[in-house]
Amino acid sequence: MFKNLINLFFPKSCPGCATILLTQENLLCTACRTALPFTDQHLSTTNEALGKFYGKVRIQHASCLLYYAKNGIVSNLLHQLKYNNQPKIAFVLGQLYAALLAEAQACPDADFVVVVPMHRKKIRLRGYNQVDGFATALTQQFHIPVHPTVLIKVEQTTSQTTKSFQERITSKPTVFQLQSTPELTGKHFLLLDDILTTGSTLETCARLLLQIPDSKVSILCLAYTK
Ligand SMILES: [Zn+2]
Q1: How many angstroms is it from 12 CA to the middle of ligand 1?
Q2: CA 118 / ligand 1 centre spacing (Å)
Q3: pTM for the whole thing?
Q4: 17 Cα–ligand 1 center, Å
Q5: Ligand 1 center to residue 86 CA distance, Å?
Q6: Per-residue pLDDT tens for 125-138?
Q7: Spatial separation of the C-alpha atoms in residues 14 and 25, rounded to whole Å
């Protein structure tokens, strides 16, 4: 009753299509839920997501939940997730993915979940890392702990003397850094990101994790760009 009243005065809208949600709808409207373009990549060991890393870096398993298309539901969802303070979107999509992976027994047998890191300044600005909700959902389903510090993002410390003064004050490039410990030897890392486009960010992160002796890396993303 109270919830209905709240909804009446502060109606929530669906981040996929902007229609007003019914009380019983959780985050996404029924129409968007049924129209989600699932990739089913987790059902194949030789899928197009894994193909993006062939010949570049050794990945055990790679799959994405949804196909991304410009101006589609998924692009709306990711936009709202990143720029409109809606971290719950990653959690709800993560729950959907966790359920599919559990049903197909396709979740990589990893020791740690690792979220592609954001620089702490950017986290402060946005208030959250947009992939954290995805990690939480997977951890709840599969009980794989998140390793929050094995990869970090820092401002580049190399000399910038070749750049002009203007470039130096406007651009501060950030780079990923590995912070390994001896206990991480032989571990399998499940690397998460919101979207797989060229794969270059994930490739960089995977390369760093594979510097750990006998380590393995698998990748899961919420969306895939063809
Ligand atoms: Zn909708």
Answers
A1: 11
A2: 29
A3: 0.89
A4: 4
A5: 15
A6: 889 999 999 999 99
A7: 9
Task: Let me know: does 50 contact 61? Beta carbons within 8 Å.
Answer: yes
Residue 72 lies inside a defined structural domain of this protein: yes
Distance 23 CA to ligand 1 centre (A): 14
21 CA distance to ligand 1 centroid (A)? 8
Please give the distance, rounded to the nearest whole angstrom, from the Cα atom of residue 13 to the centre of ligand 1: 8
From ligand 1's centre to the CA of 135, what distance in Å? 24
Question: What's the CATH code of the domain at 98?
Answer: 3.40.50.2020
Identify whether 187 is part of a domain: yes
Cα 142 from Cα 40, distance rounded (Å)? 19
Question: Ligand 1 centre and the CA of 72: distance in Å?
Answer: 11
Residue 41: burial class (beta carbons within 10 Å; 0-12, 13-18, 19+): buried
- Average the pLDDT over 179-207 and give the result: 97
Q: What is the tally of structural domains in the chain?
A: 1
* Ligand 1 centroid from CA 36, angstroms: 10
Average pLDDT score over the chain = 91
Residue 120 within a domain: yes
Note down the domain range covering 155.
14-225
Give me ligand 1 centre to Cα 93, in Å: 14
Residue 108 lies in a domain: yes
Q: What tens digit of pLDDT does each residue of 43-102 get?
A: 998 999 999 999 999 999 999 999 999 999 999 999 999 999 999 999 999 999 999 999
